[in-house]
Write a structure and sequence with these properties.
- Helix 12 links the parallel strand 7 and strand 8.
- It is globular and about 65 Å long.
- Helix 4 packs parallel to helix 9, helix 5 runs antiparallel to helix 12 and helix 10 packs across helix 15.
- Strands 1-10-9-7-8 form a 5-stranded mixed sheet, with helices on both faces.
- The protein is of the alpha/beta class.
- The longest helix has 21 residues.
- It binds 5-phosphoarabinonic acid (PA5).
- 5-phosphoarabinonic acid binds next to loops.
């Protein structure tokens, strides 16, 4: 496969003829997107970001990471929630491997769980660590509380040096985090105004933690840039995916999309997708509920209801074509488990057979529409490309639903209610 990402609609139960009925609509929306005339267009700066990004700022990120490492900082505590964390965590898992990074990058600020905070404190004990606090608004309660807590510990341990071990990523001018960063002289990076939280993985929001994890961030941007060049025309797979989802939802009554993965390192990619689609589409009583399963694990739990329950959903599988770990099944003398017929095969080959078996059971026997997205590998370039593919798809999807894909009034409402309750 030469393409970085391949879309297979052969199991989707939506025909090419059905999709073609929407070609005029797609064209109109395509023009809206690129002429920046659609709802929320002030938040579409991500469209050209992969080529327009500030090269000096990326260099500054790389230099600060280098400085922290030279100082002997072993752990980066990343504090943020929603769009201010899902991009970096999913990218680091995807590229570096979920378990490989667990002791080098720790995420906080995603809850108000005392037990979680205590466990993080334990992990940081007797280690040299720094903080990367990320909040566009600077006022989100969960990360702000975590920052207050861990900053105190860092200051106790490092005295006046602590400020150099803190990096703040926030709005250029406004918000309490910006004010704190200015007052305390923290190094800061900017969350661009024209890019919303769920699209911000390609900005310092995602790039700083990724760089600390050893990800080549310029390659991520290069992958996104490649996608921006390949997907900026009328006949592209991102639009095909969007229109297929739209037909499944509006004509075939499929109200949920289950993101299905077969790789341990893709669990957080599913979480990232749930935010991207859920926050972008779910408004005005519309939208497809995004869900996720991690196979094989969930074949032994939700697998039953997916196969034989009420068919109100479709599946979108993300399959990684090449796996660099060539782990083979060994031959066993006694063969008591009877598995010698698999000896010599790689775990990846067997995983592919699992996928083929599920696809056939769900699609053929179960009548479940399946969209299959195959990506080449787990490289930086592939990640950047895949993210941009979904950015374009969700924009088209939102405009097909005639909503503003770039705001999140429901999320803001919970924040307001929570503050009101806390002040009571
Ligand atoms: O997509 C969004 O805008 C939200 O999920 C935000 O990213 C999330 O609420 C965190 O907001 P902030 O970065 O302002 O702390």
């Amino acid at each position: 496969m030469s393409k970085i990402l391949n879309l297979d609609l052969g199991f989707s139960l939506v025909s090419k003829k059905d999709r073609e009925k929407y070609s005029k609509k797609i064209e109109d929306i395509h023009n809206l997107i690129y002429e920046k005339k659609g709802k929320g267009n002030e938040f579409t700066d991500w469209l050209s970001w992969p080529s327009d990004y500030d090269k000096k700022e990326v260099k500054k990120i790389e230099n600060k990471v280098k400085w922290m490492k030279n100082e002997g900082i072993e752990i980066l505590l990343v504090i943020g929630i929603g769009g201010s964390y899902l991009g970096s965590q999913s990218a680091i898992d995807f590229i570096k491997g979920k378990m490989n990074m667990q002791d080098k990058i720790i995420f906080a600020g995603i809850n108000v769980s005392s037990s979680h905070i205590k466990q993080i404190e334990k992990k940081l004990e007797n280690k040299k660590w720094g903080i990367c606090v990320i909040s566009k608004s600077g006022t989100t309660l969960e990360p702000a509380l975590s920052f207050r807590h861990f900053k105190k510990i860092l200051e106790k341990e490092n005295g006046s040096l602590a400020k150099d071990y803190i990096v703040a990523i926030t709005d250029e001018k406004n918000g309490s985090l910006k004010a704190a960063a200015t007052k305390n002289n923290y190094d800061t990076f900017v969350v661009p105004n024209g890019i919303g939280g769920r699209f911000s993985g390609i900005t310092p929001v995602g790039l700083f933690p990724m760089a600390f994890a050893g990800v080549d961030i310029k390659k991520v941007l290069a992958g996104a840039n490649k996608a921006s060049k390949e997907l900026n025309n009328l006949n592209n797979d991102a639009y095909e995916y969007a229109i297929t989802r739209f037909i499944l939802n509006s004509k075939m009554n499929k109200n949920s999309e289950i993101f299905t993965t077969y790789d341990f390192d893709l669990d957080m990619t599913s979480e990232w997708l749930k935010q991207l689609f859920g926050e972008s589409e779910g408004k005005d009583g519309k939208g497809i509920m995004p869900l996720s399963v991690s196979y094989s694990r969930d074949l032994h739990s939700l697998g039953q209801i997916i196969q034989e329950g009420k068919k109100t959903f479709f599946e979108t599988t993300i399959w990684i074509n090449n796996n660099k770990e060539k782990i083979k099944v060994e031959k066993d003398k006694l063969n008591l488990d009877g598995l010698n017929y698999l000896s010599g095969k790689t775990f990846h080959d067997i995983n592919k057979k699992v996928f083929d078996g599920v696809l056939s059971a769900h699609h053929k026997e179960g009548g479940i529409p399946n969209i299959v997205i195959t990506i080449n590998d787990n490289s930086e370039e592939t990640l950047g490309y895949m993210w941009y593919f979904f950015f374009i798809s969700v924009t088209m999807s939102g405009y097909l639903l005639e909503i503003n894909p770039f705001n999140q009034p429901g999320v803001e409402l919970y924040k307001k209610n929570m503050f009101d309750n806390l002040k009571k």
